[in-house]
Amino acid sequence: MPSDNNANGAVIPENGKKNGKDKKKHGKSAGWIIGVIVLILISVTFILPTTVFSTGNSRSINFGSYNGDEISLELAYDNYFYNQLYSLSQTYGMSSQNMMQLYAQAFYQTVFHTALSQLADEASISVSDKMISQGIVNSGLYRDENGAFDLEAYNAASQLDKDALKQQLTDMIPAQVVYQDMTSVKTSNAEYSFVSALNANPRSFQYITVDYDSYPDADAVTYATANQEPFMTKNLSVITVATETEANDLIAAIQNGEKTFEEAATESSTDNYASESGNMGSVLFNDLQNMLSNSEDTATVFAIASGELSAPIQGYSGWMIFRADSEAALADLTDPEVLSDVKRYMSINDSETMNAYVEAKSAEVYAAAVEDFEKAATDNNLTITDVNASSYNPSSSSFINDIAGNDPEGLLYNVASSDAAFQEELFKVADNTVLEPMLTGSSYIIVRPVAPNNVNTNWTSYLDMMYSASMPSLVAQDIESSILSSDTFEDNFINTYISEVMITQ
């Protein structure tokens, strides 16, 4: 692990490093920040790095500031940034892969500590000798084999280590007090009532979906007959392996009679067809095309004579050996599944034709649905999706039983969550009002609100419990938001890390 006691690069000493897996990199998400606050502010880290460096020739690296206080890294036992960085490196190890992440975590931990410490100063929170003593006992640095505080071990520690620990406690405790006060706030009955009222007046919905499946079968047959290649079928077997060399070795073994194709597939193939001795059955040209890295290889496979093997072909899951078990033929255009494949293909590859049809069809169905909703669906062989009782939720609150959890297909939720005006209309119009078609993806939905059904009567009690349990996290999110969005927060982390840390490695 890189280290540099002159702070010209990574400033973490190698001594005492524990082995640990690198954490995945994270952005400044709410979950990450909350984790930082909980782990760093509640569980104080005591690392006592004073014996492994000298502060005489150290320099300070400034990564930003908060409300006038610099967020700087310096090799000193009383530098919060350094202590957090050192602690993270001891816990996870430091490498070129995770170094920037650890620096970033230490930086943002220091930002939060600085902000909370400023609040503590404003509130004139002081640290008593009793708090320091309790902090020393709770630090876990001086325990016997039974886990109890060992006074002899504490007395035997160097004065430098004792002073460092007291300094860390003096620095840490006021921020802890502020954080714990803020996150232990009680919720009033009026607030509970307000949140519960957000779930009042729910309503249910029904919607008809018009998508590519509504395209006429006869027109799909005409299209497939005029554009045959994507809808050719061929019976195939396959073996999938990791490397081209392995594929060539298997081909040689099969052709030399050392093993059969079926034996090679069962023994060596890594795909789902291995249990069927490699048999894929009838494969549509367009489906095979989606399995191969080079779409042009599909025609090569379909040109193989029955009983012959292909050369190794690269697919998305490995190198593939195909055996032709039949000649290629046009798919059975009387098969409903084939026709659905044709329509799906058109929706992707001839979207202009398909979208024009679906738009016109949705207008036709809407006109009929205004007169008779159920009959419009039945006459056009379309399904009606029922959405259970839901409440208005324009702000996407997690405390409202909204459409998201009650829409089995998710299409109504997609539109309502992305179109505030439409969501408002859903909850304002009279029951059984049929609304104009709304586009979601490549489909149109025709919606009508109806009287609420399947109302979740347990939701209110569950909400009260969930809201109370979530309060600390909600407050933590507010703390995060206010600190990171503050006009007084100057974040120069990326540029400073690149110029002062990364390029010096």
Give the radius of gyration: 33 Å
Low-confidence stretches: 1-57
Terminus-to-terminus distance? 11 Å
Biggest sheet overview: 5 strands, antiparallel
What's the structural domain tally? 3
* Count of helical regions: 19
Reported by name, the CATH topology of the largest domain is Triger factor/SurA peptide-binding fold
Q: Helix/strand-derived class?
A: alpha+beta
Q: Care to count the β-strands?
A: 12
Strand content: 5-15%
What would you say this structure looks like, in words?
With 505 residues, the chain is of the alpha+beta class. The protein contains 19 helices and twelve strands. Strands 4, 5, 6, 7 and 8 form a five-stranded antiparallel sheet that branches. It has a four-stranded antiparallel sheet with strand order 9-3-11-10. The chain has a three-stranded antiparallel sheet with strand order 2-1-12. The termini are close together. The N terminus is likely disordered.
Jot down its keywords.
single chain; 505 residues; alpha+beta; Triger factor/SurA peptide-binding fold; Chitinase A, domain 3; five-stranded antiparallel β-sheet; 19 helices; 12 strands; disordered N terminus
List the helices and strands and how they pair.
Blueprint: H1 30-42, E1 61-66, E2 69-73, H2 80-92, H3 99-122, H4 129-138, H5 151-156, H6 159-183, H7 189-197, E3 203-210, H8 217-226, E4 232-241, H9 244-255, H10 261-268, E5 279-284, H11 285-289, H12 297-302, E6 313-315, E7 318-324, E8 329-330, H13 336-349, H14 351-371, H15 373-379, E9 384-390, H16 411-418, H17 420-428, E10 438-440, E11 443-450, H18 459-484, E12 489-491, H19 493-501
Antiparallel strand pairs: 1-2, 1-12, 3-9, 3-11, 4-5, 4-7, 4-8, 6-7, 10-11
Helix pairs in contact: 1-3, 1-18, 2-3, 3-6, 4-6, 13-14, 14-15, 16-17
